[in-house]
Structure formats: C-alpha cells, structure tokens
Amino acid sequence: MEKSNTPMADDSTKPDRWDDMLARYVRVWIWSLLFGAASGLSYSYVGVQLDKPWGVLAVLPLVLLLIGIASALGAWLSLLTFLRISIIPEFFFLNRRRGEEDEREQEYRTHRSARAITTAYQYLLIAGLSRLMISLSEMMFEAVRNGFMFLR
User: Fold this and answer.
1) Where are the extended beta strands (E) located within the chain?
2) Per-residue pLDDT averaged across 122-132, rounded?
3) How far apart, in whole angstroms, are the C-alpha atoms of residue 122 and residue 126?
4) pLDDT at position 22, please?
5) Across residues 67-84, what is the average pLDDT?
6) Within 13 Å of residue 18, how many CA atoms lie on the same side as its CB?
7) Residue 24, number of CB atoms within 10 A of its CB
8) How do residues 25-38 score in pLDDT, each as one tens digit?
9) H helix and E strand count, the chain
10) Across all residues in the chain, what is the average pLDDT?
C-alpha cells in the first residue's frame, strides 16, 4: 500500500475544529469555576449570624454583610449574562456558525461576554473580601469582649 502525498480536504479544517472545541471547553470550564465560587460564597453568607450585642460597632459587620450579599448577587447576574451571551448560543444554536455571523456581531458578542465574565470575577473578589472582613471583625470583637485572653 502506498501512502498518498495529497492532503485530504478535511485535514485543512481539523485544526479549526479542534481550536473551536477547545475554546468552548475553556469557556465552560471558567464559567463553572466562577459559578462554584459564587455558590460557595452565597452559601457562606447564609450562615452569617450577627446576633451578638456589639452596640454601635455592629454597624461594621452589617455593612460588610450587605456589601458582600450585593456583590454575590452581582456575580450571579454577571454569570447568567455570560451564560446567555456566550455559552448557550455557542452550544444550542449550532445552525449559526462563526462564518455566517458578520464580523461586527461576533466582535460585539465576544466583547460583551468578556466583560460579563470579568465583572463576575470582580464581584466575587469583593464578596470574598467582604466575607473575610466579617470573620476578622467578629474575631476582633470577641477578643475585645474577652479582654484579649489569648495574649496572657
């Protein structure tokens, strides 16, 4: 059997197909990672209990709690926007291929999806820092209440 030196017609489209499939996989992977982080942070805010009588100082954890919850909700909304703009059209509207979209529409959709995923990440950072600050403030208030017993 002789090997043919002529390339097959499908060989020229294989790298594009693999690149396209890899790009889809990475997009879903990043979205899943951020979705899991948003779920975990949202769940951690459910367990926050600000029931100790701290007087005027209780305003700090309460403000941090409100900032964190608002940021977690912002992350959820941004992730849903990314899902609507990028993932769902890519997987479920298979009749609309990249070649059929005009360049301006494709660039606009790419820009919006990148902005949505970046915004979700920024909101998650704010929500995570808020949760950390709530925990640190509770530890500080307990230390003050107990008279810094751990230092003795």
Assistant:
1) none
2) 96
3) 6
4) 80
5) 95
6) 6
7) 14
8) 888 899 999 999 99
9) 4, 0
10) 82
Name the token pair of 117. Answer: 């995923």
Per-residue pLDDT of 50-66, as tens digits, reads: 777 777 777 888 899 99
Top-confidence residue, 111 or 5: 111
Total residues found in the chain within this entry: 152
Domain segments of the chain as ranges: 26-46+55-151
DSSP assignment letter at 85: I
Q: Token pair 């805010």 is at which residue?
A: 45
Enter the tokens of residue 70.
């608002």
Highest mean pLDDT: which range of 56-60, 93-97, 111-115? 111-115
The answer to whether 96 touches 135, Cβ cutoff 8 Å, is: no
Task: Give the Cα separation of 119 and 125 in Å (integer).
Answer: 10
Q: What are the contacts of 86-93 at 24+ separation with CB within 8 A?
A: 86/27, 86/31, 86/113, 86/116, 86/117, 87/27, 87/28, 87/31, 90/24, 90/27, 91/24
Quick one: CA dihedral 93, 94, 98, 102, positive or negative? negative
3-class state of residue 98 by DSSP: coil
Query: How many Cβ atoms sit within 10 Å of the Cβ of residue 38?
Result: 22
Q: Would you say the pTM of this structure is higher than 0.85?
A: no
